[in-house]
Amino acid sequence: NTYIKPEKTEVLFEFYWLFQVLNSYDDVKFNLVEGKNNAVAEWEDEQFLYRIYHDSTGSLSFHENLADVDLPEEDGYLYRQGKVVKKWQEVAEEALGVKGTDQFWGGRPDILLEKYRKSETKENELSQLFIGEVKYTENPDYAAQGLKELLEYLAFVKENDEYFSNRFPVFASSKLKGALFTDKLELDQLGSEKKRLEVYQFGEDFKLSEDLLG
Question: DSSP code of 61?
Answer without folding.
Answer: B
